[in-house]
Amino acid sequence: MKKVLVLSALQLFFMAAGLQAQTIVPNPQSQSEKENKTDDVKVSDLQFISTNNPGLASDLKVFSEFMSKMGFPAIIQKESATHAIHLIKDDAYRDEEYRMLCKANQVVEIRGGKDGVFYGLMSMLQVIEQGQRQVALAVPQLHDFPAYSWRGMHLDVSRHFFPKEFVMKYIDLLAMHKMNTFHWHLTDDQGWRIEIKKYPKLTEIGSKRKESIVEKNFDPYIGDGMPVEGFYTQDDIREVVKYAQSRHVNIVPEIEMPGHAQAALSAYPEYSCTKNTFEPLTKWGVSNDVYCTDEATIHFLEDILDEVMALFPSKYIHIGGDEVPKDRWKVCPVCQQTMKTHHLKDENELQSYFVKQIDAYVTSKGRNIIGWDEILEGGLAQNAAVMSWRGEEGGIAAAKQKHNVVMTPGDYCYFDHCQGNKNNEPLSIGGYTPIQKVYSYQPTPAVLNADEKKYILGAQANVWTEYIATTDHVEYMAVPRLCALAEVLWSGDSKPGWTDFKNRLRIHFDYLDKFNVHYANSIFDVTAVRKIVDNKVVVTLETEYENGLIQYQMLGGDQPQLQLYKKDHPLVFKHSGKLRAEYYEGTKDSGHMLEEEILVHKALGKTITSTIEPSTYYNEGGLPKLADSKAGHAPRLSSEWLGWSGKNPEITIDLGDVSKLNNLDIYTLKEEMNWIYLPQQIDVSLSTDGINYKPLKSLTAKEIEEGYGVDNKLSIPLDNTKARYLKLALTCAPKIEKGKPGEGEEAWVFLSELAVN
Ligand code: ACM
Ligand code: ZN
Questions:
Q1: Residue 18 pLDDT > 60
Q2: Residue ranges covered by each domain of the chain
Q3: Sheet strands (E) in 244-348
Q4: What share of the chain is helix, strand, coil (3-state, %, to 5)?
Q5: Cis peptide leading into 220, omega within 30 of 0?
Q6: Does residue 15 contact residue 587 with C-beta atoms inside 8 Å?
Q7: Which of 65, 294, 303, 323 is the catalytic position?
Q8: Which of 550, 502, 548, 496 is closest to 523 using CA atoms?
Q9: Tens-digit pLDDT profile for residues 325-376
Q10: Which atom of ligand 1 is nearest to the CA of 389?
Q11: Which CATH architecture best describes the domain 3-144?
């Protein structure tokens, strides 16, 4: 739907309309009025930059590099009393604090602490970029500092490998948003990515896997036959560490233990419990083969950590600790003997014993470990910090025990989740974490007291890459959610709110374009809000931004041609049809195309009751959802479906009036992989008074299976019978048979719409 010729006049209008002044992401803590109007400095008048502090030479160099990446002429480095930016390091400032001050003679002063001057320059970059587009833009007057000290992004380079050049671009993205921590997930079951001189097989063998699973074909397994390999040499790592330092970013390396170790055990199976032979995993998930807990393995890991600590100056070294199956330990004579010798009551305590030894070792080298929240189980090691990913509970427990905490709860901080309408987004692991949700995050839990709150260092987002194979896709998942998280962590309590943020973000996209960032455009997507009015579906099209235009089509409806949507003129569907709609601004790329089926039928908005309520797990919107004009999709979006299991519901629709009924479309689901089965029997009966029902149809399992087809639909003719009430008795499938996923469990029946015509 890119045929927009008729609209070109409007496009021009929007391109010329101009932009708001001086917006910065993350939002500065305070922007003060200038004392004296004559001190105004026009951004476009700045020509020189200087510092008399040799310690700031690196910041200046990075600033110039960013300028040239944006395609801007360099600001000349020269002492100048006018039209200049003066950089001043001031020990009276906190490390990350800075001020941007407009002085007389067209001079801007950026004054700050150890990292603060750099952050001032990062703000200045955004101001300069806007100054290019807006001639009259004045330099803002800022006083700025972060709310949290750990402002992080993680990247998994094990599931898919990304070259060091991309890692550097990722670090640039952090720095541009004043984030200061890069968590580099270097090892996992599917690949070992860091050269260790003492154990060369880790990369010779552990960095190569023969293929990857195709999409989600776990059972039966389908592999793509394409080898994946790659690792960073120690020289690469030193180069990246230096690059990050120049951008005031600390790299926290992660070496996973005692679980997520299959790639390492492929190279050195002697450190497993079984001593079997292994290969790096080709599918996603958690390997049962973990490190053995014997002394030799601890020494092996200490050797590795020695080399890691020599490469990374970080105070914190991440040692993983998540998702450790205990199967092998339970039957390993060595592990069981360790438990006896050290009076450990279960395998959780064995894990804790393992982590405590690593903690003591890393502490003895003047560093600290950080681990995923499972390291709380069986007792937290003395000096360990905790990264809370399974919600905030782990973080809260650790803070109460006076341990440092980094928050990264799945619901807000897992950027491998999809961020928009699932039908438009690339395949992802699951979950839904739109940018609005990220922006709403408050890293410090209210349940902590003032003293405990001090242990919350900040938060980070995680980009796990099972389903992310390209660098463009990483950028899509990371940005712009990264911008929102950066503001959560930098601005803290002074975060100005979603509307303010999204308007700045709109301008910020133009800045990101200069750096060729493949950010997600999901925020530009159209949302169709439906209302049922007199058996018609009235649809309002909504977007986050309103400067642009929405084009739509009502296929199979009244407006099949491309139309321009007018605000306050909702679309009325009198018959079932397909809606397509897309937002765009000027000549710029817009959001994704919205495509939705709208079902118009007699049951819309009518009263629906059931003898058995849907399960609390699958009851979003309740029974009215069965007549809301919306059929569910497969693969399943949970929020579109109601689910029953174990009990057979009898569902009644009251249509309000007696009329001739022609047909019933039942939208149901078959997804045996997820324990969801078609009903085994369906009995339809009709009534005019709601008391006396006449059986009309009874479908057997075989008839249901044969009738079920595309669009997850099963049609049942109602033979023009006159009725007001329709009753549907569903018989769920029996317990799941042997050999199928979920064997022995109750099967589920899912429904999304009951369309009566
Ligand atoms: C994790 O997501 N397993 C930390
Ligand atoms: Zn063992």
A1: no
A2: 3-144, 158-494, 525-598, 607-756
A3: 250-257, 316-320
A4: 30, 30, 40
A5: yes
A6: yes
A7: 323
A8: 502
A9: 999 999 999 999 999 999 999 999 999 999 999 999 999 999 999 999 999 9
A10: 4
A11: 2-Layer Sandwich (3.30)
| DSSP category for residue 237 | H
| CATH 3.20.20.70 fits domain 158-494 | no
Catalytic option among 144, 188, 347, 373:
188
Q: Are strands 385-388 and 368-372 parallel, antiparallel or unpaired?
A: parallel
Residue 630 is encoded by which pair of tokens? 């919306």
The two three-digit tokens of residue 49, written as one number:
């930059």
Looking at the DSSP bridge assignments, the partners of residue 291 are 272
Residue with tokens 């010798």: 341
E runs forming strands in 408-499: 456-461
415 Cβ closer than 6 Å to some ligand 1 atom: no
Would you place residue 11 in the very low, low, confident or very high pLDDT band (cuts 50, 70, 90)?
very low
- Give the residue, by CA position, lying nearest to ligand 1 atom 3: 322
The answer, yes or no, to whether any atom of ligand 1 lies below 6 A from the CB of 322, is yes
- Please tell us whether the domain made up of 525-598 is placed in CATH 2.60.120: no
Single out the catalytic residue among 183, 185, 260, 633. Answer: 260
Neighbours of ion ligand 2 (CB under 5 A): 273, 292, 332, 334-335
Question: Burial, 656: exposed, middle or buried (Cβ in 10 Å; 0-12, 13-18, 19+)?
Answer: middle
∠401-405-410 over CA atoms, to 5°?
A: 120
Check: CB of residue 653 under 8 Å from CB of residue 693.
Answer: no
Known catalytic residue at 595: no
Which pLDDT score, from 0 to 100, does residue 219 have?
84
Probe target for ligand 1 pocket from 189, 323, 376, 406, with the most ligand atoms within 8 Å of CB: 323
470-523 pLDDT, tens per residue?
999 999 999 999 999 999 999 999 999 999 999 999 999 999 999 999 999 999
Q: Whose CA is nearest to atom 2 of ligand 1?
A: 389
Q: How far is the CA of 326 from the centre of ligand 2 (A)?
A: 10
Beta carbon of 306 within 6 Å of any ligand 1 atom? no
CATH topology of domain 607-756: Jelly Rolls (2.60.120)
**pLDDT of res. 2:** 41
- DSSP structure string for 91-143: TTS-TT-EEEEEETTTEEEEEESTTHHHHHHHHHHHHHHHHHH-TTPBPP-EE
Picking from 438, 441, 431, the residue whose alpha carbon sits closest to that of residue 467 is: 431
Residue 260 appears among annotated catalytic residues: yes
